[in-house]
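Backbone-to-sequence.
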């Protein structure tokens, strides 16, 4: 679970009123993140673009690793378990 300090949590109204200030803090790495609250519920988190790009790269790597694992597992499938394209389409109801 992600934790937030008191200065990292702001209301949506405060965020709108002080948008430039929060943006500057994040852009200059003076603040790691800002959690935006509306109606006492967390709605969004603003993070630096570098952190966002890093997270997206990790997500993409994880997806590629999962695809690679599936391909490697399928290499071990005996030929007698193969399903033709036509049979697969029939099974899918297409």
């Amino acid at each position: 679970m992600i934790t937030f300090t008191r200065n990292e949590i702001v209301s949506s109204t405060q965020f709108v009123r002080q948008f430039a200030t929060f943006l500057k803090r994040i852009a200059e790495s003076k603040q790691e993140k800002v959690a935006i609250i509306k109606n006492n519920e967390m709605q969004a988190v603003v993070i630096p673009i570098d952190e966002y790009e890093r997270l997206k790269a990790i997500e993409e790597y994880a997806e590629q690793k999962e695809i690679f694992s599936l391909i490697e597992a399928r290499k071990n499938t005996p030929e007698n378990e193969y399903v033709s394209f036509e049979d697969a389409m029939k099974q899918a109801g297409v």
